[in-house]
Structures are given as C-alpha cells and as structure tokens.
Automatic annotation (TrEMBL):
<keyword id="KW-0050">Antiport</keyword>
<feature type="transmembrane region" description="Helical">
    <location>
        <begin position="102"/>
        <end position="126"/>
    </location>
</feature>
<feature type="transmembrane region" description="Helical">
    <location>
        <begin position="12"/>
        <end position="35"/>
    </location>
</feature>
<keyword id="KW-0812">Transmembrane</keyword>
<feature type="transmembrane region" description="Helical">
    <location>
        <begin position="72"/>
        <end position="96"/>
    </location>
</feature>
<dbReference type="InterPro" id="IPR004770">
    <property type="entry name" value="Na/H_antiport_NhaC"/>
</dbReference>
<feature type="transmembrane region" description="Helical">
    <location>
        <begin position="41"/>
        <end position="60"/>
    </location>
</feature>
<feature type="transmembrane region" description="Helical">
    <location>
        <begin position="241"/>
        <end position="259"/>
    </location>
</feature>
<feature type="transmembrane region" description="Helical">
    <location>
        <begin position="318"/>
        <end position="336"/>
    </location>
</feature>
<dbReference type="Pfam" id="PF03553">
    <property type="entry name" value="Na_H_antiporter"/>
</dbReference>
<keyword id="KW-0813">Transport</keyword>
<dbReference type="InterPro" id="IPR018461">
    <property type="entry name" value="Na/H_Antiport_NhaC-like_C"/>
</dbReference>
<feature type="transmembrane region" description="Helical">
    <location>
        <begin position="436"/>
        <end position="461"/>
    </location>
</feature>
<feature type="transmembrane region" description="Helical">
    <location>
        <begin position="204"/>
        <end position="221"/>
    </location>
</feature>
<keyword id="KW-1003">Cell membrane</keyword>
<feature type="transmembrane region" description="Helical">
    <location>
        <begin position="357"/>
        <end position="379"/>
    </location>
</feature>
<keyword id="KW-0472">Membrane</keyword>
Amino acid sequence: MDSDQTSSPKKPSLLMAILPIALTIFLLMLQLFVFDDFTPHIPLVLGIMIVGALGWWQGYRWSHMEAGLYKVVSVGLPSMAILMTVGMIIGVWILSGTVPLLIYYGLAILSPGIFLFATCLICAIISLATGTSWGTVGTVGLALIGIGEGLGIPLYLTAGAVVSGAFFGDKMSPLSDTTNLAPAVCGTDLWSHIRGMMATTGPAMLVALGLYAWIGTGYASDAALQSESVAQINATLQETFALSVWLLIPPIVVVALAVRRFPALPSIFTGVLLGGILAVVVQGVSVHEVFNAMQSGYTSDTGIEVVDRLLSKGGIQSMTWVITLVLIALGFGGMLERTRCLEVVLESILKIAKSRFGLVAASTGSAIGTNVVTGDVYLSVALPGRMFAPAYRGRGLSTTVLSRSIEDGGTLISPLIPWNVGGAFVAGTLGVETLAYAPVAFACWLSMLFGLLWAATGWFVPKASDEERQRWKDLGEAVMDETGRHDAGRPATANA
C-alpha cells in the first residue's frame, strides 16, 4: 500500500482538514454525554484511524504519518515519566506518613470558611516559587484534597481551588517551561511576557480568590458540625502512623530543588527516595512494603471510611489510565500535525481575523482548539505562537499580546480538558473528574475572558514599541499584512 503513496507534504482542503477533527470530537461527545462513560481512550484511537484513512486517501504514506505520530508521542515521554514518578511519590508519602501529617496539621489549622481561599493561595505561592503546576498538584494539592474532605468541603470545589492556584503560579513563574516557551515562539522576551500576562491573569486570580472566599462563607457554619469528624480523622491518623516533624523533610526538599531549578524528574524521585527511607525508619515498614507502595500504591484499612478513602491512593499502576490516555491523545495530535490538518485550520482562522479583537480571539481560540485536538499543552502554545506572530506584527501589535493570549488558551485551559495531558494528570492524581472541577477552576477560564474584554476595549493591548519594531527588523522577523502576504517590512497600524 505504501508504494502507491507519497511522503511529500501535501495540504488537505479545509473540509478534509476539519473532517477528522469534527468526527473525533463527535465520538468523544457521544462517549462522554450519551454513553455517560468517562473514558475518552477509544474515541481518540478511532480518531487516529480516521486521520490515517483520510491521510492515505489524500496521498500520504502510512510510514510518513506514523513517523509524525511517534515524533509527538516522543515529545510527551518526559511527561509520562513524571506521571509514573508522581504515582510513586503519592504511594510512598502516604506510607511514610508525610501526607497523613500534612492532613493532620491542615485539619488542625484550617477552618471550612477560609479553606478554599487558603487552598488557592497556597497552591499559587508554591507553584509560583517552583514553576511546576504538576509538582504542586501531586504533593500539596493531594494533601489539601484530604484536608478538604475532612472539613466537609466537596471534592470538586477543593480540586478547582487547587487547579486555579497551581496553574496560575505555573503560568506566572519565570521557572515554568510554558512561560519560557511562549515568548520564545512569539519573538518577545520573558519578562515582557510576564508583565503582559498580569493584565489578564492578575484580575482573574483576584476574582477567583473572591469567589472562593464567598463560597467558603457557606461552609463556615459547618465548623462545629465537622469538629467531631475532624477529631475522629486525626485520632485515626495518630493511631495508624507515627507522626513526626521529620516527615516534612521530603516536601521541603522537593520544593527547594524546584526553586533552585533542579530538573523535575530527579527532584520528584528524590522525594520518592526520602519518603521510602522515612517509611522504613519512622514507620518501621519493610523495604518490600515500600516497593509495593511505589508499584501499587497505599491501601488503608483503618475501618474509618473517610480515612480509608483519603489514603488508598498512589503507585505506578494508578497512573496507567492517565498514561495510556496521554499516549493516545498525543498520537492523535501527531497524526493531525503530520497530515497538515492543523496547519490548514489555523491558516483559515488567520485569514478571517482582521480586527484587533478578531486576532486575539483567534489566537486564544486556536490555542484552546489545539489543546482539545492534540491533548498537548506545548503544541497549544507552539503552533498558534508560530502561526500568528507575523499577523500580530503586521497589525502593529506587541507580540506580548500574542504570547499572553496563547498562554490564556493553552497553559490555563489544559487542565480543564479531560483527555489533555493536564486534565488527565489532575484527574488521575486528585481522583476528581475533570468536568466536575473545571467550572470552579475560576482562575483558569476567567483569564481568557479578561483577555477578550481587553481586546474588545483596547485596554492593556499595547502596540509594538519602536524598540520592538526595530528588533523585528534586525532579526528579519516575518510580518504578514492584511492580504496575508509575508514581508520583513514595516508593520501596519493596529486596527480596532
């Protein structure tokens, strides 16, 4: 079959580019909302088959498309390694008593009325300092889920507050990978990019904190009712584990390594090793039990339902659902990229984005769309960034507006999509379905709305400075005029 096909790039028509995406989204909606089955794996596998069939019909060799699939999957391998290591750290930190200790202290210090506000703020600070939303969710976020359940806060609300804080910090941190990727692909510098994001992410976070504080008032009156439950949980934790301040060493070390920009994988694995050592020394378990916790997670059998539900988590095996989903979603994205379907769709969107608002809406929407169809946050930043940068220059707009808009639609929307790497990780780690917490992860979707508001009004949408224009000229950056022609000449004036 391959002998009759070509491996040379060939653009599909717009209809042929949209068709496999539309069919796959239809299958996903059918699975999620008609069959009421929260397993998007098979629809995405069928999506790969649909793209392959249409690509072959267009004249692509299977080997050519397969290479694109494997290329994008290989880009996601570091994320999958982190997923496995996070599964290990959860199991070992519960076995060692680290997570139970954090829950114990949290239940003693936090009250239901301030819990959601404090959760969002704590996760934001830690993620801002470390530059990793995943590390924040998998460590502090997991403990806060347990504390929230002990205080009687619904899991979806706690998860929403964790995600809002963790991904806000990730987006704004100069240590974050996506925060460095966005300005690089758009042609601006890191600090200008971060300053530009304050106009959307800052108000979104303030509104989110206000909403969590307001929601918390509805649980403030439950404090007395929850006191008996909290006392029972803490008593059970004290009976089951030897609680010691030494158990705080692993999270402190992991956060310190992240702040010092130590690579994520060895940082988390250091936490696994320290947790394993403390499990043997402090809890008196065997090395074999530590290995079992790494592989299969911790199983709590205290007889107290809420405690057993809180602590029966972790292990590499618990992440297999997430890892297989990430593999399939990235493969689907790789096929779409190799057959140039994404390129055609993005170019078509770019042609109709004539105004300032249209351009910002198109770049934000393209980042969201890439997140949806590829399942990968890095592609959602890189592809629209590369595609839209010449158009922003041509309209005379600062490319910090572009880098901000693709992070609003890329980094912050990633955890709200069930089959995206971000959404799958959060759901697998916290044990809460993505569609349950997404509506209350306020900071994630409010940032995008503020970006569109500023684009409509013209506020906080700066034109390119003379210095920025000169840099484009010096670097020979591509500039696209309103007819779609690329040039390295002087940018046009921004349109309203």
